[in-house]
Specification:
Elements (H helix, E strand, L loop, with lengths): L1 E4 L5 H15 L12 H5 L4 E7 L2 E9 L4 E7 L8 H11 L5 E6 L3 H9 L3 E8 L2 E8 L4
Antiparallel strand pairs: 1-2, 2-3, 3-4, 5-7, 6-7
């Protein structure tokens, strides 16, 4: 598996992956208004990396680099449980210059456990249009 910077030619696939993965993971939300173009809006101005193996794009992560903020990490449901998310997370963490941050929806229990297994810890709680979330931090190890 390689982790590489995204290219414009990845956009159609990543749009589809983002829509499909949200529908698969965020089952408590009404997805009727979600569109392929949502990917464009949520990654605007972010660094995006793609996990790929044997020509298959398996997932992506996007980061606000100046803030060390992991904004998105989504794995195609067909490739979950194969280390794709871990590889993307490790790569994102390698770009941090100080403590990393992310917000995870409270009802997304699988994602919360995933981040906690990788050393992230809860710092605060908040509310977003998608529901309650937990603000999580990752402290760089010297």
């Amino acid at each position: 598996m390689i982790i590489r910077r995204w290219q414009e030619s990845d956009r159609p696939f990543l749009r589809t992956l983002y829509l499909r993965a949200r529908k698969s993971s965020w089952t408590w939300l009404d997805s009727s208004a979600w569109q392929l173009e949502d990917f464009d809006a949520v990654t605007l101005g972010e660094a995006i990396w793609v996990a790929e193996e044997d020509g298959h794009r398996m997932g992506f992560a996007s980061v606000y680099e100046n803030d060390n903020f992991l904004h998105n990490l989504f794995v195609d449901p067909d490739f979950q449980g194969r280390g794709v998310g871990s590889a993307l997370l490790k790569h994102a963490q390698s770009t941090f210059t100080h403590t990393g941050a992310l917000k995870c929806l409270s009802l997304n229990e699988g994602a919360l456990k995933f981040y906690q297994r990788h050393g992230w810890h809860v710092e605060a709680q908040g509310v977003s249009p998608q529901g309650d979330y937990l603000l999580m931090h990752y402290v760089l190890k010297p």
